[in-house]
Amino acid sequence: MSTPPVTAENIADLTTGTLFGALEDPALNSMNFLNEVAIHYPEAIPLAAGRPSEEFFDLEDVHRYLREFCRYLAQELGRPEEQVRRTVLQYGRTKGIIHELVAENLRLDEGIAIDPESVVVTAGCQEAMFLVLRALRTDERDVLLAVSPTYVGLTGAARLVDLPVRPVRTGEHGVDLDDLVAVIRRERAAGRRPRACYVVPDFANPSGLSLDVATRRRLLEVAAAEDVLLIEDNPYGLFHGDSDRIPTLKALDEDRRVVYLGSFAKSVLPGARVGYAVADQRVIGADGVVGLFADQLSKIKSMLTVNTSPIAQAVVGGKLLAHGCRLTTATAPERQLYDRNLRHLVTGLAERFPPGTDVTWTLPTGGFFVVVTVPFVVDDALLERSARDYGVLWTPMGHFYDDSSEVRALRLSCSVVSVDLIDRGLDRLAALINDRRADRGTR
Q1: Taking Cα atoms as reference points, which of 145, 152, 154 lies closest to residue 175?
Q2: How far is Cα 278 from Cα 109, in angstroms, rounded to an integer?
Q3: pLDDT for 231-283, tens place per residue?
Q4: Cα-flanking dihedrals φ and ψ of residue 392, to 5°?
Q5: Beta-bridge partners for 125
Q6: Closest Cα partner for 265 from 365, 135, 415, 158?
Q7: Which of 155, 158, 203, 339 could form a disulfide with 236 if both were Cys (CB 3.0 to 4.6 A apart)?
Q8: CB-neighbour burial class of residue 423 (10 A; exposed 0-12, middle 13-18, buried 19+)
Q9: d(CA 56, CA 43)
């Protein structure tokens, strides 16, 4: 039977008006747009992407860690060869096959004591985020709170489940707790239900700022008093420079108030796409049976991705095993590199923009990001001009705010560049800023 030729009459055209409404939302365009700019200008110096350094990538590590995980299954768990092969190559357990290793890693590195059954291993932390938001959204009254500026992946995931995001001011200590309370009470007075507040306490994306211990404890108290959950996202906590590590919210959490999101993208391998959620909250079913929130997340996951790639999990599990389930020591070289780059970036900004000028920036003690405030509006058009005419990439901060207001700031990332590229990139950025100042001066 021959296939009819494609003509204008038999093409099934669609319009966005007949598709999911959020597809028109700018939040869902952000990552694709930023990636496209980088692709179109491959020679531009990349001070935009928050990717881990490729200096530590080694293909042989993939094979080595895979063999280590298989050895663990066979020798430490006593599984026969057939079962080892099935565990790694067959469809697997929805909640994951490295949940016990993840729980041990959290115990050793973070001081978090949890039941391994409360861990759901996901296809990247982005899936973990989606599962939690999907489970919390019951009807149109539900809203999510988020410390602003907010990671665009969180905003986008919330759009996909029709969960409105209400911003909470950053404040002097990383979160304005008075504003948090005010937002919660304002939403309730309007008949809405604040379900949770999303926060990145360690070197947040995009601000790079952190919460001190006193603020973390107070945040937990506010969450308990106002009866909301906290969704703690912690992709950067291991990269704290030479400062002392601060306990995570989950480590301080005594009444299961925190749903903890973790990722192995920065600490093990981004190409593995392995993240996880720790959801140890108790859930009472319609039949009165008490289970874990993780079990509810796994139901959603089973219909979304079925299970996270067992091969990818095995690679991550192998690295955990090779380092005694401690990533604090395994990532020491990366931490030193990121700390060096961050210091160089901040010093370079100070050299090019002396005190008293109209350019300022944040001073993070770890992580990947610095936010630079400038005396003019920063938008996508300016980014394209920067990439095309000046050869440097960065991220407009407008992508991290959940409104259409004009933003006069940009985010720099120092994780994938050498100190030489940082210098050259800052020279180009300074030229752009100075020229933009001149443009404004002639208007």
Answers
A1: 145
A2: 15
A3: 999 999 999 988 889 999 999 999 999 999 999 999 999 999 999 999 999 99
A4: -145, 135
A5: none
A6: 415
A7: 203
A8: middle
A9: 22
By the 8 A CB rule, do 163 and 187 touch? no
Burial class (CB in 10 A: 0-12, 13-18, 19+), 21: exposed
| Tens digit of each residue's pLDDT (9 = 90 or more) over 344-379 | 999 999 999 999 889 999 999 999 999 999 999 999
Tell how strand 275-278 and strand 119-122 pair up. antiparallel
**Is pLDDT at 177 greater than 90 in this prediction?**
yes
ω into residue 206 within 30 of 0, thus cis?
A: yes
Give me the amino acid identity at 306: V
Q: Are 334 and 56 in contact (CB under 8 A)?
A: yes
How distant is the alpha carbon of residue 60 from its chain centre?
27
Secondary structure (H, E, C), the chain:
CCCCCCCCCCCCCCCHHHCCHHHHCHHHCHHHHHHHHHHHCCCCEECCCCCCCHHHCCHHHHHHHHHHHHHHHHHHCCCCHHHHHHHHHCCCCCCCCCHHHHHHHHHHHHCCCCCHHHEEEECHHHHHHHHHHHHHCCCCCEEEEEECCCCHHHHHHHHHCCCCEEEECCCCCCCCHHHHHHHHHHHHHCCCEEEEEEECCCCCCCCCCCCCHHHHHHHHHHHHHHCCEEEEECCCCCCCCCCCCCCCHHHHCCCCCEEEEEECCCCCCHHHCCEEEECCCEEECCCCCEEEHHHHHHHHHHCCCCCCCHHHHHHHHHHHHHCCCCHHHHCHHHHHHHHHHHHHHHHHHHHHCCCCCCCEECCCCCCCEEEEECCCCCCHHHHHHHHHHHCEECEEHHHHCCCCCCCCEEEEECCCCCHHHHHHHHHHHHHHHHHHHHHHHCC
Supply 162's token pair.
Answer: 């029709």
Is the backbone peptide bond immediately before 149 cis, with ω within 30 degrees of 0?
Answer: yes
Name residues whose C-beta falls within 8 Å of residue 260's C-beta, 6 or more positions apart in sequence. 112, 232, 234, 248, 249, 250, 277, 278
Instruction: Please name which of 224, 221, 248 lies closest in space to residue 237, comparing C-alpha atoms.
Output: 248
Which pLDDT belongs to residue 7? 57
